[in-house]
Amino acid sequence: MGVSMEGQKVIMVPYMEAHVPKYHLWMQDPALLRATGSEPLSLQQEAYKRETLKKDEQGLGVEIRKLGIESMERGKLELGTHEMYEPINDSSSAAEAPTQYEEAQTAAKNAKKKNPIQMNIAVLPFLFFFTSILVLESTAFDVVANFGAKADGRTDMKVALLNAWKQACASATPATVVIPKGTYMLSQALLNGPCKSHITLKVHGIIMAPADPKAFKDSNWVAISFVDGLTITGGGVFDGQGSGVWGKSSCGMNYCDTLPFNLKLHALKNTMIQDVTSKDSKQFHVNVLHGQNITFERFTVSAPETSINTNGIHIGRSNLVNVFNSIIQTGNDCVSLGDGSKNVYIKELNCGPGHGISVGSLGKYHNEQPVHGVYVKKCTISNAENGVRIKTWPASYPGTATEIHFEDIKMEDVGNPIIVDQEYCPSKSCNLKVPSRVKLSKISFKNIRGTSKTQEAVKIICSSGVPCEDVRLIDIDLTYKGPGGPSTSRCSNVHPRLSGIQNPPACKQSTTMRPQLLS
Questions:
Q1: Each residue's pLDDT expressed in tens, for the chain with a length of 519 residues
Q2: From start to end of 423-496, where are the E strands?
Q3: What are the structural domains, with CATH classification, of the chain?
Q4: CA atoms within 13 A on the CB side of 298
């Protein structure tokens, strides 16, 4: 069977100075497995994960890997107001990369000495560097030309796609699976690694899921697992055809074992999802679990606000996940972060309609892992039920969430623009007499501005059992023009530190603790 060669740009992925934390191999709690739609590891998969984690722990941080991508917009990286360095442009040589990185390290250390607090609330992973783009050849496996797929919108392309993936994954050199323009029907695809080299899934066409939910026995539609070095690109669409199930499932607002996600990305490393669209998923659009160094860039989620339980990107038990310059319109959280989310960077995201950008909900399950390092910057949230949100269950299991920072967020007609809710109870059947045991600390809201469609624009309800610590409100300007007067705020079990504009007046209605002005 013939294949072709096509030029492919390859870029070195970012290198992180900090040591990569050790990972639990998988969630072994059956309840957690069910809640995230995950499956227990096979012995082969466990061996692969142990080996890849072992590699990470032998050096500093994330190993430098080649990641095949078409292009990446790169500009100055900032630390607060500190300009760091210019990433190497495409015409420079790869040999210059170490010098650039050393300069970045020095600049970061100097910045930290000058302003240690600002270093702590940095909102970009700027201890990364990029080498110059190198042009390599990639073997192309075309599902139509080489494997007989039909772009007629009716014929199942499952066998063609799986055969193309199998050959590309076995290639000792970079390989690309190509889905040309056209409309394709796909019943299900479980695309598993490990692969021998970098692999690209280039989707130019529209891939449609079966509209009938009875076609699925589990939550997998397109599921990719155990790949180190993956790119998904091409401008195509993953269409879940989910409109027929929204609000009609017996699961209601809860996770449903048999409703598929559009994309399930499990145990992936060094992965780029760029210039593709997820449309009308039956459940979550994307689920990232046990990932490491995953970037979404110019990624689009398209679904109406009536699409129940269709989170745009859900992240859990993953380290170093980036969402840049993307658009998410859906019926639930634009981005939701579950337990074990670490070093998550969200920048220039347009969110709405939907339920905003959420950390949580946390504390529902035993042995949840800490959330640490969430940085959201320069985003716009519009026509959404919530803005930036942290939510934990009352009567919860113990847990922690720390270093969570929201900065430069524009709100356009958003309900609850700023909300910390440690009494989260969507079912209204919780035991509110028992406080949450999830400890929240080192949280900041800075330069949050715009319009609120609820009079209560700032709501920080912390746990009476483990009150919030080190919460900061800096330059908040949220207006409300509805009935009842101007915007208001409400706080409990928190002692926030204040600076700059406070509209509404911070924590005017407060219980147990009072705000403190920053010096």
A1: 444 444 443 333 333 333 233 223 222 333 333 333 444 445 445 555 455 444 444 433 333 333 333 333 333 333 332 222 222 233 333 333 333 334 444 544 454 444 443 434 343 443 332 322 333 568 999 999 999 999 999 999 999 999 999 999 999 999 999 999 999 999 999 999 999 999 999 999 999 999 999 999 999 999 999 999 999 999 999 999 999 999 886 665 566 778 999 999 999 999 999 999 999 999 999 999 999 999 999 999 999 999 999 999 999 999 999 999 999 999 999 999 999 999 999 999 999 999 999 999 999 999 999 999 999 999 999 999 999 999 999 999 999 999 999 999 999 999 999 999 999 999 888 999 999 999 999 999 999 999 999 999 999 999 999 999 999 999 999 999 999 889 999 999 999 999 999 999 998 776 655 455 554
A2: 438-452, 456-461, 469-479, 488-492
A3: 333-519 (2.160.20.10)
A4: 14
437: its two tokens: 């045991």
User: How many other C-beta atoms can be found within 10 angstroms of the C-beta atom of residue 516?
Assistant: 10
Place of tokens 């990569």: 20
Buried-exposed string 193-220: b where 16+ CB fall within 10 A, e elsewhere: bbbebbbbbbbebbbbbbeebeebeebb
Query: Encoding tokens for residue 271?
Result: 């992965």
Place of tokens 């999830």: 438
Which of these, 278, 326, 282, 277, lies nearest to 307 by C-alpha position?
A: 282
Strands (DSSP E) along 131-185, which ranges? 134-142, 152-156, 175-179, 183-185
